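User: I would dearly like some help making sense of a protein record. This is the protein in question:
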Amino acid sequence: MFNRNSIGIEIDREGCVLVWLQSRFREAVMMAQRSCPLPALGGSEDRQREVATRLKEFIGENGIDSPEIYLALPTETGIVRDLQFPLAVKENFRETIRLEMEKYIPLPVDQIYYDWQIIAEDKKNKQLTILLVVIRKEDLDPWLRMCREFELGISGIELTATALANGLAGMIGKPAREAAVYFHPGSDRTTLCLLSGGQLLAARTVVETTLSLPELLAPELKIAREHGVLAGKPLGIMIGSEAVRFGSEIPGSSEIGPVVPLADSLGAVEQLAAYGLARKGLGRVSSRINLMPTGQRKRPDRQVMYLVIGLLAVNIFLFMGWAGSLIIQSKLDNTRLDAEISKLSDRTRDLVVIDQQVREARTKIALLSDFQSGHPAAADLMLELSRILPSSAWLDTLTIKGGKIEISGRGESVADLVTLLEASDVFRNAAFLSTIIRGQDGKENFKIQMEIE
């Protein structure tokens, strides 16, 4: 689905050539090609019907999905030339070329279709060079009717010359990007084109003549050099089945460099123009001339674009969801860590309290040890009390007077303390000296007196 399809159709005097290209990993791959004969020129409607039929058959047999389709008519049906204008008119050039058209083309503007493209911009001399391509409406309108009647979905129509320029640049590469002359010998006429920097400068179809190639090209070469868009000797490139034989017969000259035959060594050179047309559908061309009125062109297939946008949107939402989940997880982790820290803080405070209690106990033990060293009997009494009293009770005071002992302190439940003391072998006659009072902290205050055995 992501592979774009494009079909080029070159129409000449004898027939038509169809080429199907498909974009794969930034490369244009030729998937299929076909050459079909057409009826004689006299039956133009028959030719158009035959072209439409062959095109639909070609699409159906190859299962081509939503192709861009470009068509080329013979170069001699139109006019191709370069023009120069002041650089200042660039901002409003469309209106300028319409007003100046009749100075350069011997036809009224309302009787032609035309298109133009900037091919050179000389800021130093403030000159603008454009390629202008013109065709009479009476020559193009029948093909436009064909497109409408057969619902072919044509994206553009141009001349063979511009299609050849795009095809040559795609097939040969470097020679086409530099200055080159390419010519296609036919049965009774020859197409001559002048190319520089991948741009078509001029094109012409001539019938068989006794003039040499340099003589034939002299007008185009002169104009190109005067405009400063051609430097050095252009490379001669001859295409077609007779290229090798003709190439050996045409030597280089002072105006043209050596002639290079371009025969079947590069593959389907007879499909060069159709190949260049198909490349345009994949957006891989330098010449973008299109003589078809804008309102009649097939609208670009946006299915792939919408799919890509949809996938991009899905990826964005997935990324946002993933990022959101990370944020949520991070917040949950922070909450959990805060809870753990709070617990540890509470435990730390408890440890501080316990540590303080231990310190106080050690101090009391030290005092008791001192007391025991001087009063061993009292130490024994303290030992017995610590055994009897529950862990929830503690003493605040201890007083020994003769054979009696008084203790006061606090505890959680002190009502049973007297019973516990009476059960001792050391104490007897234990009794509360005051009422048990519960303090604000929930502890009960007690004061007990007992006798020592």
